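We include this case.
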Amino acid sequence: MQTAENIDQALFNHASMGIVVVNSKGLIITVNPFALRLFGYTPDELIHKPIEQLIPSRYHHKHVAHRDNYIQHPKSRPMGVGMDLFAVTKNGTELAVEVSLGNYESNGESYVIAFISDISVRKKAEAEIAKLNDELEATVEQRTRELTDAMHQLERSKEVLTNALNKEKELSDLKSRFVSMASHEFRTPLSTILSSASLVAKYTEGDQQENRNKHINRIKNSVNNLTDLLNEFLSIGKIEDGKIRAHYSHFNIKELLQNICTEMETLVKPGQQIHYRHSGDEAVNLDPSLLRNIILNLLSNAIKFSPDNGVIDISSTNNTKEIVVRVKDSGIGISAEDQEHLFERFFRGANATNISGTGLGLHIVAKYMELMNGQVSYSGELEKGSEFVIKFTASNDQVI
């Protein structure tokens, strides 16, 4: 019949985990066969040896303190929860282990029982799983980045496509407006030339010279109008191709503007007057050709859109800070809605459809001002006249 002592001995000898009994001084009292096989020792090599012999040397100092503390406050508990514990075999191989502790007293002496399980295989598997998880997470992150990049590229492609479609639509609109404008603006002078040329051929008598001169002048004016139209188209093409640049030189701005006003006197409507005044220094350093074209455009519009007997005021000021030229008329004005598109190509106000023009003049003015680093602005109201202001800063004036 098996006694309790026999059963305890059988459990000790045949347990499938290492069992090591240590006294209060940390010396090994007994070791079961499984532990001996696990660590590669004989009983004589371990009995009465410090338990630290089974622990890697780098942990000895800490383990002695933990061991003494446990002996002073013994209780049964698992060890290493949330920690990595290691043991070392006789040949120096380190093992990952789990250790549970128990304690008992015999003949007034305290003893600690350590139950040791080799978990190296499990730890290796866990490490491989952790590595696989890391690789999987890295792969997921990489795929996420690739997907994000693809989404961004798709958004950029969508934006590029949208811009291209908008540009295509804009070009289509510009083409339609150009064709409509050109067919109208070219048809009128060409019709005038054709009809006047036909009438001139009928005036064969000497006393009909006055009639011939009238129609010859009409032909000349129409040709000049066509030339102006073509020049505007050519100017736009040169500006967009970057073929026009500002060429600065010193000149007298008062003389330039006075000459322009004198030239334009021949184009005013009945009763219209151009008033010009200047204040400040007359010497400036700008591109006289570009400035001349800007003023001609603004004065031409003022004459065109102002009524008979209207007054057109032009003024220039040159002080130490800036050069300012103002062209003001008492014409039909521009609505607030149309002012937003005032300097766009081929744009014409809703109230100007019955007045000849290409819608390029103010666009050219704005582009010429950009070439000279100047600014152009508009103020006015519908049926209350218009005022255009061009400004150049003193620093721009000094550029050569």
Observations:
- Residues 120-202 form the longest helix (83 residues).
- The two ends are 121 Å apart (CA to CA).
- The chain has three domains: 4-118, 125-240, 249-397.
